[in-house]
Design goal:
Elements (H helix, E strand, L loop, with lengths): L1 H31 L3 H26 L4 H20 L13 H23 L5 H28 L5 H27 L5 H24 L12 H15 L19 H11 L1 H4 L9 H41 L9 H13 L4 E9 L1 H8 L1 H18 L5 E6 L2 E7 L8 H11 L3 E3 L2 E3 L2 E8 H4 L4 H17 L5 E3 L4 H21 L2 E10 L5 E12 L3 E3 L1 H11 L2 H22 L5 E5 L2 H5 L3 H11 L7 E6 H6 L1 H14 L2 E7 L6 H6 L4 E4 L1 H4 L6 H16 L3 E4 L5 H9 L4 E2 L10 H17 L2
Parallel strand pairs: 6-7, 9-11, 11-12, 12-13, 13-14, 14-15, 15-16
Antiparallel strand pairs: 1-3, 1-6, 2-3, 4-5, 8-9, 8-16, 9-10
Helix pairs in contact: 1-2, 1-8, 2-3, 2-8, 3-4, 4-6, 5-6, 5-9, 5-11, 6-7, 7-8, 13-14, 18-19, 20-22, 20-29, 22-24
């Protein structure tokens, strides 16, 4: 099909060029006036060439709308016959002279119906355009009545029926002009074929104007030059039919176009000047024409007044829309941050005590990542609606962005610091939300600051402090409200300092990797290592992973840090495996942010190839919250890696959202029992029961079990009794530098080699 369409294009180009050349040749011959026979032949050839183009074009290009082109074909045939028979009736008298008009008038009617069809198919319905067309049409009608129809009706040398026919053409031309103007004002997409059709109709108008002016003065014949617009119209219609863009002439395009443009003004301004041309009355015009002039002028003025009124109203509406968009959130319709700051500054300037509540939705990211942004937006809309409906009217509700909302409420006697009101908000927002995917529960963490307690503060400072208190609420367990305390500022500044230092750590070589042994509990045999990120800060010594890993998760640095740890782990493992026959492996922790990165899988596989380490020697550790919080994204990455041979381990099992379903769906190979349960395996019966049940479940599913945080010999013995074969902890080996790990591998291998 594609080759067939490509083959048609050169043929269509050749036909289009041939048609244009033929029409131009006939036009020159006709204007040269080489005799009535030659001129008639040139006119007939032009008409026949156009008719042929109207037949060939649709068959060649197969347009969406065939009816339009068939009607244009009939119009061309009628327009060709009418002028062709005119020389044959020049010597006749009476109604015989009207024979050409018997073909031309139906041609006009079909042309008008065809243009109306084009307008309907293209969805050209625009109130402003209709008013503009009314202005142009009334102006053209006034000129036609005053200078063509009126003189034709009063001309004594024309028979009554002839004068009536002469008067009909200007009326048809006014309607044609109206349709052309409407098409021009509403066509946002002007294809070459559509412009050629419009040009043909415009040429027809020009030709009629010449004949109408002659007819208004009693002349019934004209020099050949008066027919050149008709020949040009034929040529343009044929070119429109042969151009490839004719396939989409009738396709709809419903976007509203610009209300004002220089093209519109170029048409409207002359129409507005029409009444000034009618100021000097012509006493010879019939009374009916004078009345039509008056009515038309009044209609023109009325159309201008209505159009101006609409323009003013639209401008006012647009200004209100832009003002609303500038001060309101596009999604929820709540006040945005600039509008909130302005209102807050006004309250502070008036000395009114206010409380600022900064709200962040706990669990929103999980909803967004699990079901997509559309469901996330659905949740935000329900939260915004709940805040609007259930809070007092004097509370200013705004959306700061993302899943963050800010409330400004007057300080009340029974609740000066706003914490009582914040608890009410928590209770309201913690109710289930009916989403398209089912009921979902999210809870808010709220930071509260009081203008009275803060003293002389700006709106920005109050919002910043409320934001700081909100983060303290999240750190303290979420779904709670915390009032701002000045000491929190130090915490925020410390977090900013940490973030800045962490960004520089990789470049300065401050990041390192420690390796903790993984051993067989019953024999103590070394099985491999877990790679652990370490940060040696030059200004403050080591920084615990719990601190900098959480910060890296928030600012996105976990991606380069994770790549660094993976590369170092695989590089060391490659060295160990080359120096000993053991098929040791290495465990590397992976965060949710890494699994969400589209390039993560490719980087892991590339690192394995770069360090010549088999995929089976790498085990990636993920937490339960990572798997459940964004299972769809995690599953995609983990399945690709599992198919390549990489093993998957669930870290800190039992502390998150434990579920048997994801263990099978995601092809998990190992579970690691969290140190909090291992610590109590010999002292707390409930911890022993949890460890026993976890081990039994894992063994039933065919999964390996690793116990973390083993610190005593009693714990190791109890775990062996429970059937847990692997473990790690300070009893078995503390995290150590890469050099120490290499020495351990050599020492263990040497001892094994000396054993008989």
């Amino acid at each position: 099909m594609a080759q067939t369409a490509a083959a048609r294009l050169p043929r269509a180009t050749w036909l289009l060029r041939a048609h244009v050349a033929l029409v131009l040749t006939c036009l020159v011959v006709y204007v040269a006036d080489l005799g009535s026979t030659v001129s008639a032949a040139a006119f007939v050839v032009t008409g026949l060439a156009t008719a042929a183009a109207m037949v060939v074009g649709p068959r060649l290009h197969r347009p969406q709308d065939v009816v339009t082109w068939r009607r244009l074909l009939v119009t061309c045939v009628l327009f060709a016959i009418g002028p062709a028979v005119r020389p044959q009736v020049d010597g006749l008298h009476g109604l015989g002279l009207a024979l050409p008009d018997a073909f031309l008038l139906p041609g006009y009617v079909i042309a008008l119906v065809t243009l109306r069809r084009l307008l309907r198919l293209r969805g050209s319905r625009d109130p402003d355009a209709a008013l503009d067309v009314a202005v142009v049409t009334v102006g053209a009608a006034l000129l036609s009545i005053s200078y063509i129809v009126g003189p034709a009706l009063q001309h004594s040398s024309l028979p009554g029926w002839t004068a009536a026919i002469v008067a009909v053409y200007p009326v048809l031309d006014v309607v044609l002009l109206a349709l052309l103007a409407l098409l021009a004002f509403t066509a946002r997409e002007r294809t070459p074929s559509l412009m050629l059709v419009g040009g043909a109709m415009l040429a027809l108008l020009v030709g009629d104007l010449g004949y109408n002016l002659l007819g208004s003065r009693g002349a019934l014949t004209a020099p050949p030059v008066f027919d050149t617009p008709y020949l040009l119209a034929f040529g343009l219609l044929g070119a429109a039919a042969l151009h490839p863009s004719m396939r989409a002439v009738g396709s709809g395009y419903h976007e509203r176009v610009q209300a004002w443009s220089w093209q519109r003004l170029a048409v409207l301004v002359p129409a507005l000047l029409v009444p000034s041309l009618l100021i000097i009355p012509d006493a010879n015009l019939p009374l009916v024409v004078r009345w039509l002039q008056a009515i038309g002028s009044a209609g023109l003025v009325a159309a201008i007044i209505v159009r101006a009124g609409r323009a003013v109203r639209e401008q006012s509406d647009s200004r209100r829309v832009f003002e609303h968009l500038a001060t309101h959130d596009a999604l929820t319709g709540l006040a945005n941050r600039p509008a909130l700051n302005e209102r807050l500054e006004q309250e502070l300037a008036l000395g009114n005590g206010v409380n600022v509540l900064f709200i962040d939705l706990d669990g929103f990211k999980m909803v967004n990542d699990s079901w997509g942004h559309a469901v996330g937006d659905e949740l935000l809309l329900l939260v915004a609606d709940r805040l609007r409906r259930h809070l007092p009217p004097d509370v200013v509700v705004s959306r700061a962005g993302g899943d963050e909302f800010i409330l400004v409420t007057p300080a009340r006697q029974h609740d000066l610091d706003g914490t009582v009101f914040a608890e009410h908000v928590i209770a309201e927002l913690s109710q289930p939300y009916a989403l398209s995917v089912g009921d979902v529960v999210v809870t808010p963490s709220i930071g509260v600051v009081s203008s009275a307690a803060a003293g002389e503060r700006t709106a920005d400072a109050l919002v910043r402090d409320a934001d700081t208190a909100m983060y303290r609420a999240k750190d303290g367990g979420r779904s709670r409200a915390v009032a701002y305390d000045p000491s929190m500022g130090e915490i925020v500044r410390g977090r900013v300092t940490l973030d800045r230092a962490l960004r520089q750590a990789l470049g300065r070589g401050e990041m390192d990797v420690a390796f903790q042994p993984l051993v067989e509990l019953a024999t103590g045999r070394l099985l491999g290592f877990e790679a652990l990120a370490r940060w040696n800060r030059p200004d403050g010594g080591p920084c615990t992973p719990d601190v900098f890993i959480a910060a890296a998760e928030e600012n996105g640095l976990i991606l380069p840090i994770g790549d660094f740890v993976l590369d170092r782990a695989l590089a060391e493992l490659s060295t160990w495996r080359s120096s000993s026959p053991w098929e040791m492996g290495v465990n590397v922790n992976v965060s949710a942010r890494q699994l969400q990165d589209p390039g993560f899988t490719g980087r892991v596989l590339a690192a394995l190839a770069r360090f010549d380490v088999p995929a089976s020697a790498l085990r990636l550790e993920v937490t339960e919250s990572t798997l459940v919080g964004d299972e769809a994204t995690a599953a995609t990455s983990l399945r690709e890696l599992e198919r390549a041979g990489v093993s998957i381990s669930v870290d800190d099992f039992g502390t998150g959202y434990s579920s048997l379903s994801y263990l099978s769906r995601l092809k998990v190979h190992e579970v690691k029992i969290d140190r909090s349960f291992v610590a109590g395996v010999t002292t707390r019966p409930e911890d022993l029961a949890i460890v026993r049940a976890t081990a039994a479940m894992a063994h039933a599913l065919g999964l390996a079990v690793v116990a973390e945080g083993i610190e005593t010999e009693e714990q190791r013995h109890a775990l062996v009794e429970l059937g847990i074969s692997r473990g790690q902890g300070w009893l078995l080996g503390r995290p150590m530098p890469a050099a120490s790990a290499a020495a351990l591998v050599s020492r263990v291998w040497g001892a094994a080699a000396r054993r008989p």
